[in-house]
Amino acid sequence: MVESFGYFFALVVGVILGLIGSGGSILAVPIFVYFFLMDEKLATAYSLFVVGFSALVGSAKQYSKGFIDFRTVLVFGIPAILGVSLVRLFLMPLLPDELFKIGQIIVSRRMGILGLFAVVMVPAAFSMLAASKSPHTGHKISQINYNYPLFLVEGLIVGGVTGMIGAGGGFLIIPVLVVFGKIEIRVAIGTSLAIVTLKSLIGFFIGDVYNMEIDWPFLLSFTGIAGIGVLIGNFMQSLLEGPKLRKGFGYFLLLISFFIVYMEFLRP
Questions:
Q1: Predicted structure pTM score
Q2: Nearby residues of 128 by Cβ (< 8 Å), 6 or more positions away
Q3: Are 113 and 164 in contact (CB under 8 A)?
Q4: Among 28, 115, 142, 153, which residue's Cβ finds the most Cβ atoms within 10 Å?
């Protein structure tokens, strides 16, 4: 029964990813940890694969609509791929089960990874909520003024975070593109999906395939269900307005952040 709920949420992962261009990995990692009882390192690896292929499905749909800015994909994507690959290949295998102690409290690798996961979502959430209140609707591709230094630095940071917590990183990419790049929300979503596709899949195959035993039948079935969800989310996206997407995305990030903090640090 628990695993059945896990497969249902695989569909939800895809819907969220298709709807807002990110957020799927925010559910994927907890699903693997709480429903399928996986080790957090394996869960983050599986999340990269699932989110990467789900984003690939969403990217194809966004490309057909003209909502992908390939210049931003290149500028943002190359340092992001470098960041995630280095972290998955060299840093993750070195992390011990117990990171450190604070008095009698042991901070485990799981607490550290999921705690970082929750922390990085908070500023991203507030930046999107602030953007949703602005009358600025963003520029289309032909009007974008590219902030190359910011995109390069952010790409490297997002890649490192992606490698550490197994998240696609769209919840960090979209706020940067919308708030600092002044890119229209639907273009930001499509561009985010393309970036997430590249760095998630390359990071998985470079950093995890040769370091872990992968259950391919399970992983492919879970991914297939999530891919169907992406198509559903893409359809739903056309029914919603940009400001509502930004606002809903922001509140969604806060909700999941609080949930992870409760599950890992506050639950008796």
A1: 0.75
A2: 174, 175, 178, 179, 246, 247, 249, 250, 253
A3: yes
A4: 28
